[in-house]
Automatic annotation (TrEMBL):
<keyword id="KW-0315">Glutamine amidotransferase</keyword>
<dbReference type="InterPro" id="IPR029062">
    <property type="entry name" value="Class_I_gatase-like"/>
</dbReference>
<dbReference type="InterPro" id="IPR044992">
    <property type="entry name" value="ChyE-like"/>
</dbReference>
<dbReference type="Pfam" id="PF00117">
    <property type="entry name" value="GATase"/>
</dbReference>
<feature type="domain" description="Glutamine amidotransferase">
    <location>
        <begin position="78"/>
        <end position="177"/>
    </location>
</feature>
<dbReference type="GO" id="GO:0016740">
    <property type="term" value="F:transferase activity"/>
</dbReference>
<dbReference type="GO" id="GO:0005829">
    <property type="term" value="C:cytosol"/>
</dbReference>
<keyword id="KW-0808">Transferase</keyword>
<dbReference type="InterPro" id="IPR017926">
    <property type="entry name" value="GATASE"/>
</dbReference>
<protein>
    <submittedName>
        <fullName>Type 1 glutamine amidotransferase</fullName>
    </submittedName>
</protein>
């Protein structure tokens, strides 16, 4: 099954020699699950011809805000609406979670409570799930028809489902502890309050449920391809 990765940002230059760019993180996360990948770097103006160019779609994270006035955001929103209308399965992670909500009628803004960084526990339909987070923006109003799949005290709309064809998550299952450590060192200081970064660093060795979420994402794609 071919998954089109819609790349909406780049990992910091200093991290790429060791960790790769954002599409590399997702390919490692979803490896050995019957999926093939092709990347379109929409942040750089590279767009697919339409929703049928892949059998499923995944939108990455980004340092940009969904509400920013950037030339690639309106065509990405139009593509999201086309993918939705075509019924092709779509997954969004962090910025991807936010831009999908915005494109379909929701609202995204900076959270007045600030940042969520590091290992964070969520309630996924009654089950505790721990994932690495890195965000200040949140979906504050859900689009019509979007159902809450996961939440936390800090993030009410931590994962959303739109029928059985779109699944989005605010956290970063693709961020390993090693990547998060280097991200804190390279991008965090001066951007995120030190107390939050120190707490995130202190939890780097604690387990997260990224593999379980990766399996859920892979099943989301493959079950819909089979249907």
């Amino acid at each position: 099954m071919l998954i089109g990765i819609l790349q909406t940002g780049h990992a910091p230059d200093a991290l790429r020699p060791t960790h790769g760019d954002y599409p590399d993180l997702f390919q490692r996360l979803l490896a050995d699950r019957g999926l093939d990948f092709r990347t379109w770097s929409v942040v750089d103006g590279d767009f697919p011809e339409g929703p049928q160019a892949a059998e499923g779609w995944l939108i990455t994270g980004s340092r940009h805000g969904a509400y920013e006035d950037l030339p690639w955001i309106p065509p990405l929103e139009a593509l999201i609406r086309d993918i939705h209308a075509a019924g092709v399965p779509l997954v969004g992670i962090c910025f991807g979670h936010q831009i999908i909500a915005q494109a379909l009628g929701g609202r995204v803004e900076k959270h007045p409570g600030g940042w969520s960084v590091g290992r964070t526990e969520y309630d996924f339909e009654g089950q505790p799930v721990a994932l690495n987070a890195w965000h200040q923006d949140q979906v504050v109003e859900r689009p019509e028809g979007a159902q809450v799949v996961a939440s936390s005290p800090f993030c009410a709309n931590a994962a959303l489902a739109y029928g059985d064809r779109i699944f989005t998550v605010q956290a970063h299952p693709e961020f390993t502890g090693a990547f998060l450590k280097d991200l804190i060192d390279q991008r965090g200081r001066g951007l995120v309050p030190d107390a939050l970064l120190d707490a995130a660093q202190a939890s780097l060795d604690r387990p997260v449920d990224a593999a379980a979420l990766a399996s859920r994402i892979a099943r989301f794609f493959t079950e819909r391809a089979a249907a």
